[in-house]
Design brief:
Blueprint (H helix, E strand, L loop, with lengths): L16 H18 L15 E7 L1 H17 L3 E7 L4 H11 L8 E5 L3 H7 L23 H5 L9 E7 L2 E4 H6 L10 H15 L4 E3 L10 H9 L16 H15 L3 E3 L4 H10 L4 E2 L5 H8 L7 E4 L13 E9 L6 H12 L2 H11 L26 H10 L11 H18 L3 H16 L6
Helix pairs in contact: 1-3, 1-15, 2-13, 8-9, 15-16
Pfam family, one: SBP_bac_1
Protein name: Sugar ABC transporter substrate-binding protein
Keywords: Cell membrane, Lipoprotein, Membrane, Palmitate, Signal
Length: 453
Amino acid sequence: MNVSPVNTPLGIDRRRLLQLGGALAAATSLAACSGTGSAGTGGAGDKDKASITVWSWLEPAKALKAMVPEFRKKHPGIKVTVQDIGNPAIWDKITTGMAAGGEGLADVLHIGVDYLPGYAEKFPDGLADLGGLGATKYRGAFAPGLWRTVSPDGKRVNALPWEANSAGFWYRADLFEKAGVDAGALATWDDAIEAGKKIKAKTGIRLIGIDKPASQADAANFFQMLLQLQGTFYFNADGDITLDSPEAVRAMKIIKRMNDAGLVSDFSGGWNTMVRSLKKSTVAVHPSPTWFGGVIEREVPQQKGKWRVQLPPAVRPGGSRSATVNSTHLAVAGSSPHQAAAWSFVEYVLTRPASQAKIYRSAAIAPALMEAYDDAAFHQPSAYFGGQKRGEVFLKALKAPSPAFNYSADYARALKVVTDAQTKVLLKGADPADVLGDAADQLGKQTGRKIVR
């Protein structure tokens, strides 16, 4: 069976994100016409007795199912059914339920950071306020920045963080050694470009891969990582457009320099192309989040000992090398009549270090709960990665200051104009500042949002 992004622990697959943007717009219209924009049937219910349903996908769903028996020992009156809806099917299913005023939604919803702001903005009552159920006491328990993601106004709590993935620099140590390049000395992406030239000259292998024609909606992942390393994004905290900010132009210029130097392999086709690249060793570096280590181990077990990981180089000298680039969350549906019982399950899974350590051991899902990292599971050397303690590499990143990135309800539209701009740079040699300026203008016209320049 072909492996795709939905098989990763995170499971955020942006290939359907553009469709989500349209689905949210259509759903909002439907809600307005039908008068079902809010979930009026929800309530706290009996906190000790209920039958609740949980929606998730693949590996996270398995991890949640494994938690049910021990949860029921503490809460024998609460029956829990975990359903693997699949990814991206879960987004269509949640959106449809939200548009119908919450009808048909599960009690607990597993939601990616790509989608959470859109649901919260388009359907204000679609998610229960967990603050009233006791969530606010965990305000300081999660990786920096993530609380602002789930509670943008500092009052209402739309979800609790589950998974936190940091930016990573996964590299073939054998290729670096053959080229005489010290990966640990790469302080900036300028250094990485010079290293890439040496690696290509010595081995014929390019530095990284990008989906140049943007055949998939996630083609801008690397560009997005470069933004996040600079503490910025497509929108600022107020929802204004920052697509042509100095940071964005700097990031796109790095990509252009890499491409002009012949260091970028074309990953058109997306995930399957990337997997083939792993097997054929066509690139030396994969700048990908925490979860990517599990993909490498699964797809190329024969390359055991050849891989290492470190935090990515900074974009500018002395700049940050840490960023929480994506995350997932558990929310309670506003339509649920069993919100108190659903919250009990969310709290049990996400706020107990023992629960998160167990999930990490079984599914390699990196938790947002910082206290979980006291467990020995996160400090064990990996034979596959040459004895490295991968958990400690990313723990360093999670401890670093990290802003909350505002995906907003218009992330899908932003992603489309960004990938179009990047394609012009990669395939036509366009000027980064020009194409990003045009992208910002286009997004402003589409959304009515202010452009910050």
